Amino acid sequence: MRIAVGADHRGYSIRVRIIDLLRQLGHDVEDMGTYTGEAIDYPDIAARVARKVSHGEVDRGILICGTGLGMCIASNKFPRVRAAPCHDDLTAEMSRRHNDANILCLSADLLGERLVDRMIEIWLNTSFEGGRHARRIAKIYNLEAEIHAEEQADPTEEG
Ligand code: RB5
Predict the structure, then answer these.
(1) Mind listing the pLDDT tens digit for each residue in 84-129?
(2) Residue 158 belongs to a domain
(3) From atom 1 of ligand 1, which residue's Cα is the shortest distance away?
(4) Does some domain include residue 6?
């Protein structure tokens, strides 16, 4: 798989480990930084990864910040992105089976290394179940389209 990986300063060192793991597993990794330990705002990194996922330039993304939450909030602003903040084996698995998550958001501060490695393998190896869950994902796409149309509508127009 083509996988874009990004982290803010809190996830800077774990990002390097994750990239090594993904390459060992045979994936094609795009390293979106951050490349130094200096503080950087998580939305800037989330945008680099989420834009690639949104445009289909990569298959999946992995984002790491202190809690995983800021990365998740920011990346879900992008159309077609389904970012999930996962914290154990079950959330990693279910985010794929039911939500077809295409970005995994991880906490650098709250998760141990072995747990992170295991979650990543589970997340990459678990398939989307489709069926009723596909209908629900289609509804999310419809919401994106509706919201976009509302934003484009002339607010002065009466109807
Ligand atoms: C940075 O201090 C921290 O706020 C960030 O890494 C993340 O946890 C935000 O959600």
Answers:
(1) 999 999 999 999 999 999 999 999 999 999 999 999 999 999 999 9
(2) no
(3) 66
(4) yes
- Asked whether residue 155 is domain-assigned, the answer is no
pTM > 0.85: yes
The structural domain count of the chain equals 1
> Tokens 């985010």 map to which residue?
95
118 exposure class (CB count in 10 Å sphere: 0-12, 13-18, 19+): middle
142 DSSP assignment:
H
Q: Is the pLDDT of residue 158 over 90?
A: no
Q: Is 105 a catalytic residue?
A: no
Q: CATH no. for residue 20? A: 3.40.1400.10
Question: By 3-state DSSP, what share of the chain in percent is helix, strand and coil, each rounded to 5?
Answer: 50, 15, 35
User: Does residue 78 belong to any structural domain of this protein?
Assistant: yes
The rounded percent of the chain whose pLDDT value lies above 70 is 96
CA of 74 to the centre of ligand 1 (A): 12
Could you give the 3-state DSSP secondary structure of residue 30?
strand
Distance between Cα 40 and ligand 1 center (Å): 10
The tokens describing 58, both together, are 């990569």
Q: Which tokens hold the place of 61?
A: 């993304």
Answer whether 68 contacts ligand 1 (Cβ < 6 A): no
